[in-house]
Amino acid sequence: MKAEPDSKTSRTARSQCPSERDLQIWAEVKGEFLDWGYTGLVGRFQAAGHRLIGRWAETCVDKMVLEIGCGYGHHLQYGRSDYLRYIGLDIEHAFPRTLRERFPGLRVVNGDAYALPFRDQSVDCVLSVYCLEHLRRLPDCLEEIRRVLKPTGELLVGLPAEGGFLYGIGRRLTSQRYIERRYGIDYSAIVHWEHWNTCPKVIKEISHKFSIRRLQYLPLLVPTIHFNVVVALEAFPKTV
After folding, report:
1. What are 88's strand-pairing partners?
2. Which positions ≥6 away from 20 have C-beta within 8 Å?
3. 8-state DSSP, 98
4. 201: pLDDT confidence band, cut at 50, 70 and 90?
5. How many other C-beta atoms lie within 10 A of the C-beta of residue 222?
6. In the CATH hierarchy, which top-level class contains the domain 2-237?
7. CA nearest 3: which of 161, 134, 131, 189?
8. Residue range 92-124, pLDDT digits in tens
9. Residue 73 has what pLDDT?
């Protein structure tokens, strides 16, 4: 699910391709890691992004809200859970199943971000938190988001400050250390394999199709990715 910033062949040439063994282990433990990411210091920063997006979504709680990349429902846990017409979408089969167990009665769809199963201009708000950096065909996803959003709809996005100095240091000291010690895999290679877009690239791609109303950087609020770990943005479809 990503906007090919470069081909997989060229990425592999940069010697960032994980081994088949590491990919197999990662597939088995990724779900556990998602929950671990909301514990301790890492969890405080991750939750802060959800809380900010939740505050911005205040005007949408009684409208049609679509979350792309809903995962295990961490936004509902740490952002807000009072959306009256919420739909969660994820391509991973295990995620919607677990999400339904954690939030019974919730409407969840196993679907593709490149072919959203919704009518044109049928959604009031699209949320996506810590997901768009993974999408290999990011422009295709953004075009789909623009298609399903109403002309007055809004896009709310939370991003890790991928490509920033502080974020890189923090990852090495927290998640990379944890994964490599616990599972014995090359987490740096996994990250390069899965994270196709840096934070600035995602913002740039969004700006092609949407008008960005506000950007906020956490925790220091200084407008640079290098001294923050999370970036949140609010945007609206550009008129054609």
Report:
1. 67, 108
2. none
3. H
4. very high
5. 10
6. alpha beta
7. 134
8. 888 888 899 999 989 999 999 999 999 999 999
9. 94
Q: Report the alpha-carbon distance of residue 229 to residue 226 in Å, rounded.
A: 8
Euclidean distance between CA atoms 13 and 16, whole angstroms? 7
pLDDT band for position 182 (cuts 50, 70, 90): very high
| Helix and strand element counts for the chain (H, E) | 10, 9
Partners of 154 in the β-ladder: 125
Do residues 212 and 233 touch, judged by C-beta distance below 8 A?
yes
Nearest to 77 by CA among 134, 31, 35, 113: 35
Report domain extents, the chain. 2-237
User: Do residues 178 and 42 lie in contact, with contact meaning Cβ atoms separated by under 8 Å?
Assistant: no
Strands (DSSP E) contained in the chain are: 2-3, 64-68, 85-90, 107-110, 123-129, 136, 149-160, 210-218, 230-237
